[in-house]
Amino acid sequence: PTAVALLTRDLRVHDNPVLGAAASADHAVPVFVLDDVILRGGHRSPNRVAFLLDCLRDLRRELRELGGDLLITRGDPVREVVGLAERFDAATVHVAADVSAYATGRARRLSKALSGAGRELVVHDTVVTVAAPGELAPQSRDHFAVFTPYFRHWREHHTRGLHPAPKALRLPPLRPGGIPGRADLVDGDVSPSLPTGGESEGRRLLDDWLDDGVHHYASDQDRLARDGTSRLSAYLHFGCVSPTEIAQRVGESDGERAFLRQLAWRDFHHQVLAARPGSAWNDYRTRNDHWRTDHEELAAWRDGRTGVPLVDAGMRQLATEGWMHNRARLVTASFLTKSLYLDWREGARHFLRLLVDGDIANNNMNWQWVAGTGTDTRPNRVLNPTRQAERYDPDGAYVRRYVPELADLAPPEIHEPWRLGEEELRRRDYPPPLVDLMDAARRFRAARGKD
Ligand code: FAD
User: Fold this and answer.
1) What atom in ligand 1 is closest to the CA of residue 209?
2) Which residue ranges run through the membrane (predicted)?
């Protein structure tokens, strides 16, 4: 019989259970469906589409080397896959489990449509994450609401064996069709310094990282200017690299342990969203916030013109690279939600539009964590961007890189340019801060009833 591998966020040949399962059938049809709901919907992102097209080109080349190919179609994934299963008379369709409401709904619809025709959908549940969501849940609950106990279980649980890349793929006769170019699909501007997508690039990055960078991770992960993190997030988002493989290859040094802990956050947020799909856009834990509305402040935040250098540096890094350092994500998100007291959903939407690694589980659950409506056990803490800059950008190198208006300054002025006075700020075309940081923190605590 023939099997269809519906590839989604698992664009790799190494350790891919979906592809592996299909490859063991007589004939395998790997397919990727360009889905207009994702490409044209409310969370569309030129950066992710550009990165995705790189991934598809690279995957097709790899599959062709194995004697296979990648079929690319466009439309509703359920209709497309049901049509292909009929055309090739496939008995089974394999797909990776995923946690968003959209992905679970898609799998449900597909399973129903296939079973009506006597075909089976097999959902593989440790492709996108290391542990299946819910697998580690405490006895009386459907998920862990606090990270540390989750991580203790996660670290000790046994991961499945790795799937080597299939040796050969036997294809039924098919005409795969071309891969669209950026101009056909990308709707909007792509960040100028976007990384190149694909499994080849992801594996190269991973190998280099495990050889070297990871050993400095414990000391460098929060140092903004050192760029001491793996930059694997977009490759993990599209599944160019397998999280299970990473977890198995990581050793026991301090840096490796710290890195593994960070990788577990990804699984943690996925299991929260799997159990509470509504918390993608609703407060996971409501704090009865009455968020302010201020379009000008929101626009200044998006544009990196808040007058708070570390916040502006982060927002400008996001615009130019489609990626932002984790420490800067924490500071910019805290500034929006706690210093400006604007709704976390506005911030999450902007991040989702630009982040090449953007996904609902990691993005929205992290936003809620920062806003104090999520799983943070200290929901009312407010990060002070100036203190954060002193700690994590002590010589101002990160701000200097992204905020040329201040590039000739040194600390303390580079982090507190308002010390220079209004006239000097005007001369530099750099805005005064949108809020007094101390007053803003007081306003937030009062709003939360914690003054
Ligand atoms: P590394 O430090 O090298 O970490 C390794 C991997 O661990 C990352 O690639 C990522 O997959 C995972 N990871 C690390 N930290 C986290 C975390 N806090 N939550 C979940 N996974 C984590 N990450 C995304 O992948 N997609 C998002 O849309 C996203 N949005 C975020 C929004 C906010 C407001 C915040 C505070 C964080 C967000 N993160 C998101 C988490 C984190 O910032 C990024 O995963 C990280 O910066 C990616 O860079 P890296 O690959 O170099 O990370």
Assistant:
1) 3
2) none
For residues 50 and 73, give the distance between their C-alpha atoms in angstroms, rounded to a whole number. 17
**Can you say whether the dihedral through the CA atoms of 423, 426, 430, 436 is positive or negative?**
positive
- Domain containing residue 53: 2-128
Do residues 47 and 193 touch, judged by C-beta distance below 8 A?
A: no
Quick one: 116 and 147 in the same domain?
Answer: no
The predicted-structure confidence for 333-386, as pLDDT tens digits, reads as follows 999 999 999 999 999 999 999 999 999 999 999 999 999 999 999 999 999 999
Question: What is the whole-number distance in angstroms between the Cα of residue 129 and the centre of ligand 1?
Answer: 14
pLDDT digits (tens, 9 = 90+) for 165-209: 998 888 888 887 889 998 889 889 999 999 999 999 999 999 999
Q: What is the residue-wise DSSP string for 327-372?
A: HHHHHHHHIIIIIS-B-HHHHHHHHHHH-TT--IIIIIHHHHHHHT
Same domain, 34 and 72: yes
pLDDT digits (tens, 9 = 90+) for 417-437: 999 999 999 999 999 999 999
The closest residue, in CA terms, to atom 29 on ligand 1 is 363
pTM for this prediction: 0.98
